[in-house]
Amino acid sequence: MKFIQTSDWHIGYYFSSFTKEQNIELENARFKTIESIFLHAKNNNISLIISAGDQFENGLLAEEYQIKKVLEIISNYPEIKVIMITGNHDFIAPGCIYNKIDKKHFPENLIFIEDTQRTLEFSDLGVKIYASSLKSKNGSHNPLDWIEPEDTDLIKIAVGHGSIAIEGSHNPNDFPIELGFAKKRKLDYLALGHWHSFFKYDDHSYFSGIPEPIQFKNQGYALEVEIVKNKKPIVREIKGISQFKWDEENFVLNDGNYKNIIDKIAKNKELKSIKKIKFDGYLMLKNFHDFKKILPDLEKNYYKLFIENKVKIKPDPEEIKNILDSSYIGSVIEKLIELKKSEKLPVETEQGIDKEEIIDKALLLIYDYYKNSETKNDN
Ligand SMILES: [Mn+2]
What we know:
By secondary structure, the protein is of the alpha/beta class. The protein has three domains: 2-238, 4-Layer Sandwich (Purple Acid Phosphatase, chain A, domain 2); 244-313; 315-379. It has helices at 20-43, 64-75, 181-184, 258-267, 285-298, 317-323, 329-341, 355-378; strands at residues 2-6, 48-52, 81-85, 110-112, 118-122, 127-131, 155-161, 163-164, 176-177, 189-193, 199-202, 205-207, 222-226, 234-238, 245-253, 270-283, 302-309, 312-313. Helix 7 runs antiparallel to helix 8. The N and C termini lie far apart (77 Å). It binds manganese (II) ion. Manganese (II) ion (MN) binds at residues 54, 87-89, 161, 194.
């Protein structure tokens, strides 16, 4: 049998570094991704989707139109059964989003789990499903601990929201699931939600991750899972459903490579990318100046560009003095460069202030000022 595993849609997530309009677009993208998961199921004759919690970013603050959209998508695919549990972001509570709509308006093909322990059998699919919804934000217990290691001819699938208790990479308050759990409870498959990137713990235990990222480093997918009893499940990432790409790149610039690198970036047009570029390295004052001037131009190539610029001016008194030869300010610059090289500053500064950054800024200001007055004189 085949099913799709998904989780962590985080509908309602607010992107504080983006505009209001972009937030609307990003939310619409999220719904489009969810719809694409259903479309993939339909096109591939997959009749079961399991959603492992955190469908909403905040179950207490989510809005009615948001759950209505989810229910509408589900009802558009009546031939697909949907099993949905809640996570720690949208846990079951009196005022939570799932209780704002009368359950009789939930589509018939949605099996929404309200309990912490629920067992379902589908003889047509040959599966037995053990599902557990969360009822709180935090917990130090394993939400699936109630599952018995029973023997059955049915394919045993557990659905939960929590962390696998891997030493050093889980929070003990995040519903830890003991190591080797699937094997101990004779599960054919353990479908987990909570971690935002795809993670395979063993042949039978997977996190699908978030299908539409909310952060850099989210590398999630919806998963197509194929299981034959007593065999290793075959798990495939479903490609091409996420709407926006979140992508990070790092460059170390020097006077020889910076032009090529910038040209290449300037030619990139990725309007559905949210990009973070980190620049590091050293440039001569003149090149640093050119480089800084181009940076704002790059923004239009992306849906949103975050630049982390750690490039510093290479102290080269000769170059600077050539530009500013005629001026007494040349000696000021020499002094600044000396300061940059020295360990100590002649004045007290507050902690956390980057000395080099301040000196670079001062050098650039002086350079800009003289560059401008030079052009004025030329005219
Ligand atoms: Mn979670």
